Amino acid sequence: MLSQQLVNGLVLGSTYALFALGFTLIFGVLRVINLTYGFYFSIGAFVALTAARSFGANIWVALPLGAIAAGLVAVVADWILLTRLRRAKAGELSSLMVTLGAVLALYSLMAVFIGTDIQRFPFGFVDNSAIEFSGIRISLVQMLIIGTTLVLVALLFVLLQRTKLGLMIRALAENEDAARLMGINVGLTVAAVSFLSGMLGGAAGVLIGLNFNAIQPFMGEHMMLRGFAVIIIGGLGDIRGALIAGVLLGVLEVLTAGYISSNAKEAVAFTILVLTLWFRPVGLFGRAQAKRA
Question: For residue 127, is it within any domain?
Answer without folding.
Answer: yes
